[in-house]
Amino acid sequence: MADPATLIAAEQVVSTTVETGAIAAYGLAQKTQPLSATFNSISSPAFLPRSHHTLTIVNGKGYIWGGYDSGGGLAGTDMHIVQLPVKSKAKGIGEGAAEYKVVPALGGKAIESEDGKEFSGDDGEVPAARAGHTAVGAGQQIYLFGGKGENGNVIEEKGRVWVFDTETLHWSSLDPVPATPYPVGRYQHGAVSSEHPLPSSHPDAPASTYKESIQNTLAKVPSLLGKSITPKDPHGTVVICSGLPSSSSTEALKDAWSFNILTHTWTELPSLPSDTILSSAPSIALTHNRLYTITAPSSVGSEMLYLPLPKTIFYDTKASAAVADPNANLQPLFGGPEKSEAEKNGEWTVLPFPSNPLAPGPRPRKGAGLVPVTTGNGREYLLFFLGERFPSPTSSSSSNEEAPPLYWSDIWSYQTPAQAATASGIKDATRSSLGIATGEGTWAEVLVVADVEEVIESGQGGGEGISSKGAEDAKTGTGEGGGKSQPGPRGWFGAAAVEGNGVVLWGGKNAKGEVEGEGWFVRVK
């Protein structure tokens, strides 16, 4: 007869194995959508009515520039800087002096002197006032391109990229190397960025990767061959896509370009398919190694596409993104789903997009936000939110019918492929082998919930901080005392990702045609 202690030990092993298997099975069966979100208004002394402007986040601060003001005129060239209630590389939540300030446009590059940093002069060139431009961050710099100016015409600057240094608070510009191609001027285009490729002297960058990524470019730029590059030198990549070439354009451009910040060169990427219908510029986002775009709607609805952007132009050691040479070997950074024929050929791949009103998915819109977020462990989504309804709704045929909205107030999530070398990637691979749906490529409406745990101040004067209202008021956008509990219907705002699972948005135009002036922090989980 077996020893009782042995029997007990065996029973515990069996029980543990069964429990572990049950937990694993439960985890695999859990759905990855829908997500939940909290909307929190940012308390700040800066009531800044803006539309068609940009919001760029660098080290926990929001940099708001350009666009139209509440009167419909161009907002000027001042940079508005708002301390946000988010973590940054330099400060934690709530640390340091909360602030809001306005910085006039000053030109001139910083130069080293015996007494420290000096500038080549405050009379240097600065970007003209504009709207419909893009401004994205890489390192400590903000890179601005395109837009429409005072006379309503597109500003043509022959590929020039404007640079705002968030440390010196001065503007400078980068012109493309002579005799190299560049994109035409445009407005309402999309833009994304990365700090990669890193200089070879950067501690996170393999020297071979850097050399491979700019070898061909350096051959065309003799002036850069003898340059001594340091980790602090501005570097990275800006990608633009589509846009309207003139104020009278009825169809948007279909091209895409990448700009190497270090070498000052533009590279044309594969254009959107010729049969893509664009009545306005699309929304774009960069996540992992794919550039996603949702086309601005037309009479036949919207379309979603992605372009594979592997690591040959820049390499992201955290596998969050990679911008590419379109002729390179298109292997994903860390494995991933099976490629389509278009992806294998370095072309845009068309993804299914809900067209049936009864199917779950965002309805056609323009001037919306498209921002990548993560819930951790390699699980990534695209948030597609708010925006102007398109086509514009017609008047109700009956006074009893509710008028359709001019702007949307909803928020949707699209599940992108999980990173393969992560917990979510392994879980999805297991699900696929067992015939369990992974949720990849699906849409779900994000559930708005109340958040009453957090109050964080932002701005001078000790404001009320982040206000949290109940989810019951989310549909109307109002809460107790008539205050807003969420942004409500609007489009043409500025938005940027923050903290992985967060988004900050500012301003925009509401359903009454009014220009909004407050900011919002959105966190998903």
From TrEMBL:
<dbReference type="InterPro" id="IPR011043">
    <property type="entry name" value="Gal_Oxase/kelch_b-propeller"/>
</dbReference>
<feature type="region of interest" description="Disordered">
    <location>
        <begin position="458"/>
        <end position="493"/>
    </location>
</feature>
<dbReference type="InterPro" id="IPR015915">
    <property type="entry name" value="Kelch-typ_b-propeller"/>
</dbReference>
<dbReference type="GO" id="GO:0019760">
    <property type="term" value="P:glucosinolate metabolic process"/>
</dbReference>
<keyword id="KW-0677">Repeat</keyword>
<dbReference type="InterPro" id="IPR006652">
    <property type="entry name" value="Kelch_1"/>
</dbReference>
<dbReference type="Pfam" id="PF01344">
    <property type="entry name" value="Kelch_1"/>
</dbReference>
<keyword id="KW-0408">Iron</keyword>
<protein>
    <recommendedName>
        <fullName>Galactose oxidase</fullName>
    </recommendedName>
</protein>
